[in-house]
Design brief:
Strand 2, helix 2 and strand 3 form a beta-alpha-beta unit. The chain has twelve helices and eight strands. The structure holds S-adenosylmethionine.
Length: about 350
Amino acid sequence: MQKFLNKIICGDCIEVLGKVRRPFADLIFADPPFNIGYKYDKYNDKQKHDSYVAWTKDWMTICKKVLKPHGSFYIAICDEYAADVKIIADELGLFMRNWLIWHYSFGQQMKNKFARSHTHIFYFVKDKINFTFNDDTARIISDRQKRYRDKRANPEGKMPDDVWDEYPRVCGTFEERTDFPCQMPESLLARIIRASSNEGDWVLDPFSGSGTTAVVAAKLNRKYTGIELSSQYAKESQKRIERCKGLAIEGEGKRKWTEQMNQELKWLYHENKVPTEQLRDDPSLLALFTDKFNKRIGEVENAFQPTQVIRHLIQMRKSAKLGPLRGQPISRKSQNSDVEVTL
Ligand SMILES: C[S@@+](CC[C@H](N)C(=O)[O-])C[C@H]1O[C@@H](n2cnc3c(N)ncnc32)[C@H](O)[C@@H]1O
């Protein structure tokens, strides 16, 4: 398996994985083409319904074979084929743990129907009892903690809902955007990889595209393998991974705000949805938020202090690096703040 280790392999995932004898992946994240006529470099995204479903069954079967017994298998899919994926997974004996909805902003506008603004993400496991799930990496500050100051609140926070609305689609203006058309947000992959794998585990993406899964796996100290049909995409994503290695080394300077730290802070802010004013004015909330941030970036001994975090957050907000929070209820306090309110 060494030849797969930390590589983007150019090839057809069914052929490449078909040659593998032993299960090696602890976590698989698959974001296949959705058969909606997308213009990819090599792949023709307009198949007949039945042949697309048959092909889906083929790659899901191969993926299940290379998944370790305790492994997790996430599949992103559109409305048109979500039911087929679920039926195939049942036939293969996979256990569904969540049927997640990724509700994103910047949905595609359409003239004659409502804008498409979600993707299904299935979360399956091979063994319904024995699997990795690091709930502490995903917990967010609950309403009981941030709004009601309820003493019964779990001090570790609450698990996020199964509808995820904190990750916008990667638009052309975003820093992380590559030239690739349908790139997944790194922050979304980070939640999945942290929750369903441990450091040193092996993460596989059979439809690697721009290499988002591999990039995030590398940043989080996991092994990775990406498989991609297009040699151009494979080459570009390998370069993207090299660039991210540089970022990780930069993180050695402890008190410097590295790009990675900025990114983590921004993700955490959008996941927890506590406006900066509220964090500034509420020491216990800020302490919770700071604690979560330090855990995310693996800082224990040289942890950031709440004052450093709030100062930096406010700076990032002023320089428009944070972006508005989505979907918070309007309140007197939240007017003219960093909350985006839809009226
Ligand atoms: C939806 S994109 C994946 C995007 C990816 N999640 C990202 O964030 O960049 C699907 C990718 O699968 C690739 N692909 C299609 N058929 C494939 C196959 N049989 N084996 C490997 N890759 C394939 C396409 O070229 C395309 O890049």
